[in-house]
From TrEMBL:
<feature type="domain" description="Pseudouridine synthase II N-terminal">
    <location>
        <begin position="28"/>
        <end position="192"/>
    </location>
</feature>
<comment type="similarity">
    <text>Belongs to the pseudouridine synthase TruB family. Type 1 subfamily.</text>
</comment>
<dbReference type="InterPro" id="IPR036974">
    <property type="entry name" value="PUA_sf"/>
</dbReference>
<dbReference type="Pfam" id="PF16198">
    <property type="entry name" value="TruB_C_2"/>
</dbReference>
<dbReference type="InterPro" id="IPR014780">
    <property type="entry name" value="tRNA_psdUridine_synth_TruB"/>
</dbReference>
<feature type="domain" description="tRNA pseudouridylate synthase B C-terminal">
    <location>
        <begin position="193"/>
        <end position="234"/>
    </location>
</feature>
<dbReference type="InterPro" id="IPR032819">
    <property type="entry name" value="TruB_C"/>
</dbReference>
<dbReference type="Pfam" id="PF09142">
    <property type="entry name" value="TruB_C"/>
</dbReference>
<dbReference type="GO" id="GO:0003723">
    <property type="term" value="F:RNA binding"/>
</dbReference>
<keyword id="KW-0819">tRNA processing</keyword>
<keyword id="KW-0413">Isomerase</keyword>
<dbReference type="GO" id="GO:1990481">
    <property type="term" value="P:mRNA pseudouridine synthesis"/>
</dbReference>
<dbReference type="InterPro" id="IPR020103">
    <property type="entry name" value="PsdUridine_synth_cat_dom_sf"/>
</dbReference>
<comment type="function">
    <text>Responsible for synthesis of pseudouridine from uracil-55 in the psi GC loop of transfer RNAs.</text>
</comment>
<dbReference type="InterPro" id="IPR002501">
    <property type="entry name" value="PsdUridine_synth_N"/>
</dbReference>
<feature type="domain" description="tRNA pseudouridine synthase II TruB subfamily 2 C-terminal">
    <location>
        <begin position="248"/>
        <end position="301"/>
    </location>
</feature>
<feature type="active site" description="Nucleophile">
    <location>
        <position position="43"/>
    </location>
</feature>
Length: 303
C-alpha cells in the first residue's frame, strides 16, 4: 500500500459511468488512508471536476461545497424523462422541431439571476430521513420544495434540430428534437438537470440532459484536474496550505496571533469574509470569519 500522503486536495477529472463514491474508493487506495471525502457529488453520467480532500483537508470540503460551480451541458428538447437526464425512461415525447434558436435563447434568459428552483426528484436531498433518489427508485412519488439558487451566467453555444433515434414500436419514432449546448456558472445547490426539465416545460415540449461536464468548483478547474488513470501513474496532492490560499482570501499572522489561533481564540483581525489564516512560516492554521469587531474561528486545522 502507498505510504500516507500529506493533507491536501486531489482534483479529479471524473469519467462517465463511475460514481463519486467509486472515485473516493480509488483515491483512498492511492493515498493509503480511508480519510478521503468529496466536495459535491457528480452523477455517474456526469464528467469533470470532482474535488477530494485527504486527511485533515476533508474538513475544508464543507466550505468548498458552498462556492460557485461551472458546467458544460447539452439539453435535449422534445423528450422528458424520469430522471431529467438520459439515464431515465422517457415519460413524454413532443416534437420540438418548430422551435427556433431565438425562442430557445429567450426562454433560457429567464433562468439567469436569482431564481427559485425545484431540485430534480432523483437527487441526494433527504426526505423524511431518506434520499430522494432512493424513494423514486422504490416507486414513490417525491415532491421537493423550491430552493433559491443563482445562475450567474448562462451561455448558449449551439442549437441543433434533428430527428430523434427511432424507437421500435414507438409511434413518435419520427419525433424532431432540438439539442442545445450551454455553459452555466451558478451557485452551489443548482441542478443543471432541473434547468433542462424546466426549459422543456416552459417551451411545452419536455426536456432532459444528454451530457453534463463540470468545468470548475470554485477556483479549481479542469486545468488542475487529473484522471484516475493519470493519478494511478503519479499520485498528486495539492497541499492544504496551497489549497486554502487558492480557495479563500488569505491573512498572514504574526507569531503571537498564530499562537492565539492554536488555542482557538478570537482575534482582532480586519476580515470581510471567511478567510484562511496562516502562521509566519506559511502553515495554514484555520478559517476565521468576521464577528462584530473581532474575528472568530470557524475551523482550526492545527494539531
Amino acid at each position: 500500500m502507498t505510504s500516507p500522503v500529506t493533507p491536501g486536495l486531489v482534483i479529479v477529472d471524473k469519467a462517465g459511468g463511475i460514481t463519486s463514491h467509486g472515485v473516493v474508493g480509488r483515491v483512498r487506495r492511492l493515498a493509503g488512508t480511508r480519510k478521503v471525502g468529496h466536495a459535491g457529488t457528480l452523477d455517474p453520467m456526469a464528467t469533470g471536476v470532482l474535488v477530494l480532500g485527504v486527511d485533515r483537508a476533508t474538513r475544508l470540503l464543507g466550505h468548498l461545497m458552498l462556492t460557485e460551480k461551472a458546467y458544460d451541458a447539452t439539453i435535449r428538447l422534445g423528450i422528458a424523462t424520469t430522471t431529467d437526464d438520459a439515464e431515465g425512461e422517457a415519460t413524454a415525447r413532443t416534437s420540438a422541431g418548430h422551435l427556433d434558436e431565438a425562442t430557445i435563447r429567450t426562454a433560457l434568459a429567464e433562468f439567469v439571476g436569482d431564481i427559485e428552483q425545484v431540485p430534480t426528484a432523483v437527487s441526494a436531498i433527504k426526505v423524511d430521513g431518506k434520499r430522494a433518489y432512493a424513494l423514486v427508485r422504490a416507486g414513490e412519488e417525491v415532491e421537493l420544495k423550491a430552493r433559491p439558487v443563482t445562475i450567474h451566467e448562462l451561455t448558449v453555444h449551439k442549437v441543433v434540430s434533428h430527428a430523434a433515434e427511432q424507437v421500435p414500436g414507438d409511434p413518435a419514432h419520427d419525433l424532431d428534437v432540438v439539442d442545445v449546448d450551454i455553459s452555466v456558472r451558478c451557485s452551489s445547490g443548482t441542478y443543471i438537470r432541473a434547468i433542462a426539465r424546466d426549459l422543456g416545460t416552459a417551451l411545452g415540449v419536455g426536456g432532459h440532459l444528454t451530457a453534463l461536464r463540470r468545468t470548475a468548483v470554485g477556483p479549481y478547474t479542469l486545468d488542475h484536474a487529473k484522471t484516475l488513470e493519470q493519478l494511478d501513474e503519479g499520485f498528486a496532492v495539492l497541499p492544504i496550505a496551497d489549497a486554502a490560499r487558492a480557495a479563500f482570501p488569505a491573512y498572514d499572522l504574526d507569531a503571537e496571533q498564530a499562537q492565539e489561533v492554536r488555542y482557538g481564540r478570537k482575534l482582532a483581525l480586519p476580515l470581510e469574509t471567511l478567510t484562511a489564516v496562516f502562521a509566519p512560516e506559511g502553515e495554514f492554521l484555520a478559517l476565521y470569519e468576521p464577528a462584530g469587531e473581532m474575528a472568530r474561528p470557524v475551523a482550526v486545522f492545527t494539531g
